[in-house]
């Protein structure tokens, strides 16, 4: 936990919440039919991979 917020809440604040507020129904969470813009993190929360539209770009 950093800045008084847990990891689960931080992830929602960076994904599902903005998507919902912007009315984006095809992103913000992982499920069949979603856009699949993802960032893969290691145990230290460092970026190890990125997907945009379901395609690995890093």
Give me the secondary-structure topology.
Elements: H1 7-14, H2 16-21, E1 38-41, E2 47-52, E3 55-56
Describe this structure in words.
This protein has helices at 7-14, 16-21, and strands at residues 38-41, 47-52, 55-56. Helix content is 24%, strand content 21%. β2 (47-52) and β3 (55-56) form a beta hairpin. The protein has one domain (7-56). It has 58 residues and is α+β, with helices and mostly antiparallel strands.
Q: How many structural domains in the coordinates?
A: 1
Largest sheet: 3 strands, antiparallel
Point out poorly predicted stretches. Answer: none
Q: What is the number of beta strands?
A: 3
Taken from the alpha-carbon principal axes, the silhouette is flat
Question: What are the key terms here?
Answer:
58 residues; alpha+beta; 2 helices
Give a brief outline of the structure.
The protein has 58 residues and is of the alpha+beta class. The chain has one domain. The chain has helices at residues 7-14, 16-21; strands spanning 38-41, 47-52, 55-56.
């Amino acid at each position: 936990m950093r800045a008084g917020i847990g990891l689960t809440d931080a992830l929602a604040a960076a994904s599902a919440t903005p998507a919902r507020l912007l009315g984006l129904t095809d992103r913000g969470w992982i499920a069949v039919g979603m856009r699949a813009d993802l960032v893969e993190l290691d145990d230290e929360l460092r970026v190890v991979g990125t997907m945009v539209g379901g395609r690995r770009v890093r």
